[in-house]
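Researcher: First entry.
Model:
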Amino acid sequence: MKDFIFVFVTCCSLEEAEMIGNLLVAKKLAACVNVIPEIKSIFFWEKKISKEKEVLLIAKTRKVLFDSIQREVKKLHSYDLPEIIALPVVMGSYEYLEWIKRETQE
């Protein structure tokens, strides 16, 4: 289980999110990317509290691919400082994790 991660990326638009998600799957950096439209983010940026509508990506992948994912997201993302955060998978069905392994590059 320690080899698998979920990577969270917030985007400014559905179009940007789908472009990044498609690329990650096409390059076999993620087995699946969920696109969750219209989340509301509240954050501190440039010395003030900001509120923005964003789109959340959740990429199902392996820890070994994080650096490649980060590079690809930074190339395509419109933000100066995109959120790219990985969380470990603590538990999961064997079959689903094996599918992630099969569908991502070695």
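Researcher: Second entry.
Model:
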Amino acid sequence: MQTLCVVAYPELAPADRDWIEGLRRRHDPNYRLVDAHLTLVFPFAGLEPEALAGHVGAVAAAGAPFAIALRCALIVRDALSELTHLFLVPDAGFSRVVLLHDALYRGVLASRLRLDVPYIPHITVGAFADPQAAREAADEINRAGPDIAGTVARLSVVAVESPRVRPLREIALGLANDE
């Protein structure tokens, strides 16, 4: 069965997207797998894509597009490996992303929610074996004072495949998704 997940690709100004992707090329060994995104449902198997898309559509229909602002980098130790991740974390829109994540993990996804790992809304821009290198990269980003505005307007159901994730369904927030 396919490994699926749900992400949001924020709508960003081209220069901001290029800056984020440049960070990812420098610091994230998985940058070629998927474009910059917020993960809302982490990879899992055991559900048909159509069932997941139906659930995501119902959650999305009850929501609405919302703004985010990325203004700082944060380092987080991975709970499942020895890596330290470098995240861009939204301050504006943080609670909206958390509430969307929580809504998605109800119903057919309720049993897949990991309660042992905290959910931090983020765009991953790096993964480091050396936590000090992650700290230095975060400091460099934070000294630059990023102020990246964007909008989360769509959710994407994707299949996690190599060498790249494959989009299965795009679902707009706030619309009846009867496609």
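Model: Note on the second entry: The chain has one domain: 3-172.
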